[in-house]
From TrEMBL:
CDD domains: DPS (cd01043). Belongs to the Dps family. PANTHER family: DNA PROTECTION DURING STARVATION PROTEIN, GENERAL STRESS PROTEIN 20U. GO terms for molecular function: ferric iron binding; oxidoreductase activity, acting on metal ions. Pfam families: Ferritin (PF00210). It comes from the Bacteria. This is Ferritin Dps family protein. Residues 17-155 form the Ferritin/DPS domain.
């Protein structure tokens, strides 16, 4: 059945592609954060372990919202590691980094999610897709806050 919500088909397609990139970045950051939660060591273990848990839970919930928005626009959401690895702009780790490096990596990851979401926000706003624009504002708010909290640990 054809989607007819007032957003042009080509705009819906472009926005769904952008959402797929945001989903891939968010899911990759979720995996990285969950990995760090499991493997962090050192004097800050307890506080980082708990902070990483809070953040990966928020990221996990966000992936569902983003994927459901893609579906509401009439496209299929990517859902495999192969698809995410092609779409994401984040780098995976080849080893378990130190606790400080984990924090630095997550700051960079959250900042990248903000950039990816900001790019899509502009596109959604131009297409009068307020729902996607609002979703991108939520992503930017959450990732900016998480980046700030993590960055504060490094000062």
């Amino acid at each position: 059945m054809k989607v007819d919500t007032g957003i042009a088909a080509n705009d819906r397609s472009d926005i769904a592609e952008g959402l797929s990139r945001v989903l891939a970045d968010t899911y990759t950051l979720y995996l990285k954060t969950h990995n760090y939660h499991w493997n962090v060591t050192g004097p800050q273990f307890r506080s980082l372990h708990l902070m990483f848990e809070e953040q990966y839970q928020e990221l996990w919930a966000a992936t569902d919202e983003i994927a459901e928005r893609i579906r509401a626009l009439g496209a299929y959401a990517p859902g495999t590691y192969a698809e995410f690895s092609k779409l994401t702009s984040l780098q995976e780790d080849n080893s378990v980094p130190s606790a400080d490096q984990m924090v630095k990596n997550l700051v960079k990851g959250h900042e990248q999610v903000v950039k990816t979401a900001r790019d899509l926000f502009k596109e959604a706003d131009e297409a009068d897709d307020e729902v996607t624009a609002d979703l991108m504002v939520q992503r930017m708010q959450a990732s900016e806050k998480n980046a700030w909290m993590l960055h504060s640990l490094l000062e």
